[in-house]
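> Could you send the Aminotransferase class V-fold PLP-dependent enzyme prediction when you get a chance?

Sure thing. Input:
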Amino acid sequence: MNVTQHRQQLTALHNKGYFNYGGQGPLPEAALEAIFNSYRHIQNLGPFSHGVGDWVAQELQATREVIAAEVQVPSSSITLTENVSMGCNIALWGIPWKAGDHILLSDCEHPGIIAAAQEIGRRFGVSLSTCPVLETLNEGNPVEAIASRVQPNTKLVIISHLLWNTGQVLPQKEIVEQVRSQNPDTQILVDAAQSVGSLPLNLTDDGVDFYAFTGHKWWCGPEGLGGLYVRPEALETLNPTYIGWRGILTTTTAQPKGWKADSRRYEVATSAYPLLAGLREAISFHQSWGTAQQRYDQICKLSAILWDKLGQVPQVHRLRTTPPESGLVSFQLESGQHEQLVSALEAENLMVRTILNPNCVRACVHYFTEVGEIEGLVEAIGHFCKLTV
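Output:
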């Protein structure tokens, strides 16, 4: 299927230049229809009935299996959540902390994750420190920057696979290996907000302990549905914190009998189940165009075009000095008028966003972005720069 045909399913792209996939992707029509049909199916069966209960169980398992195949892990290792933050919180609060433990974060983590780690430090007497990953964007070794700061008491390292602010892809497998060589007991939590649906993944091979992701960004699924991968070896040491009927075993007298044997133990209770079909359809939409590797290659090809054309605007400073390795392209204006640029572009139906650290503008391209869109965006940025000299 060519890109023009493919894009017909994405009505959100009609008559606009969309470059905010790192915030939320557009929902394919087939996914929207699947969600509506699922809601209708529930009503036809009877909203609370044996029929709906059996259907929900099948939907949950089918979705775990589709996700697991995409990231190359057993379906039993997938917990279905609402979003990345929920997945990270399951891991963060399920670890048995004690006073004197240490958390190491990169200096490029999202404020939501930083806040959760800080609260753990406050409640349990856990120390926090950061490692300078941001400065390795163009030179330096992020693996060394992280591994060299692992301490004997480091219980958890928190990183992002694909940095949300600069678009840098961290060598995840090498980081895991080097961290464990420093301290075999240290676990690794990955914020995968930007990597799932964007990078080709093999989490089993990479060896991370916890990998939290969402379906609504690069997978272009519905907001409110994501997941957490828990490495099987980490399962027994991670305690459920949010607890409900979906995660527990019960006896014939409805008394709790312990946790489910796999990662379902971290799921809680009633969710918006029709979203499950929507996410599966969104993933199928991408698979119909090409493999994960083919999609990633196209993303890199298009982001290189955007990066190159931005370099032709004198008032623009690109954060990367070499072509991007992801679909995120961040840049700064000599004038510093980033918020004004975003507002001006949106008035022309061109959607980008600002980032606070580092202070910049971020534009995202997907594999179905058209070169004409990129040219239109850069032309509008150049025009804005000329007006604000």
